[in-house]
Amino acid sequence: MKTTAIIAAAGQSRRMGKNLNKQFVLIAGRPLLAHTIDVFQKAPEINNIIIVVESRYINICKNEIVNKYNFTKVSSILEGGKERQDSINNALTVVNKDTDYIIIHDGARPMVTHAMICDILKQAKLSGAAITAVPVKDTIKEIDNSQVIRTLKRENLISVQTPQAFSYDIIQKAYQNAYSEGFYGTDDAMLVERLNMKVIIILGSYSNIKITTQFMFKLNENQIIEAEISNITYKGKGVSRINNMVVFFDKGVPGDKVKAKIVKVKKNYAEAVIVELLEPSSSRINPQCSHFQLCGGCQFQDIGYKQQLEYKTLMVRDSLLHIGKIDSSVNPIIPSLKQFYYRNQIQLKVEIGEKPILGFYENNSHQIVKINNCLLQTKIGNEILNGLNDFFAKNFYKNSEGKLETTLSANPNFQGTLARCHYYF
Length: 425
Fold this sequence. Notes:
By secondary structure, this protein is of the alpha+beta class. The protein is built from 8 helices and 22 strands. It is elongated, with a radius of gyration of 31 Å.
């Protein structure tokens, strides 16, 4: 059995605003249309995909969507017609005659699922024609010249969606009949209904919305997105811009392509947690510190040193511009002679409990990460650090109360490192 999917994406997006075609607006780092095609590409039930777009977007669709995301099932990208019915008809004329079923879907419904595709095709095999729909929630009134005639019973009403699926012979006959009579319908099933054929309803989903306005692109908490990190903050947080909103990620290197979960949405920004690294940045390196990202002491050890200096220079310039309102060039940061083991002083925190811990605060918390070897401290300082860990383990008992601050410092005037320990009861 062969099934062809026709994806209608030739609308002019009048409600999206001037010069903004909804099919190519980025959602989670990908064009809206790419999200829709991806579902059909991954569905094993679909053998072939035909896309219909405005003529001016054919090359963009081919290069920026089909080729870029390797949608191998797409066989044709066609020019749309004046009306949606004309666009679908253009696609029907190139469908292979050995096709058994045709599934038609709006490109602007990216929330379609594989389960919907399976359900609609299963019913189409049984009845020849099937549509997805959901019960109407709102009160619907019939009017005439701005005057209410009657209120319709909601239990008898549905809101029709796509996908819609038909046997090849039925949908071809329905379109031929409509054009022979000069009839234009608002959906494909309407043309089949005019053949006095039954159209069976499959329950769709209220999340299977059709994107029609810019407002509908708003990010939501718990939403899974895909994005490319474009910048980093001085605290090492990744930054990207999605749907015209700045999104801060818990980590990331500029150039990383990631999958993330939105955890907070504010008026002017959102926060996200990365759940998967899809494609690493060319600037990304393996951090040498085993405590990296656990300890809050360093933020950039997963970035090459040359790139670190470049990003830090940009941070200085951005701070001058946005905080100080000073628009000025910044000289490149002078690299250190040593990347590691160069600091002559380091302050550590101690947690007294079941087992005393000497180290740094965990990132964004007051939990302490035990440090055995700090790459920023001198090597002799690390020897003292381990000696102190041993000393605390032997000389402090469970549930001791108090505060202990430790400072390790190297005096340039003499060889060696001095440890100062202060314990307060």
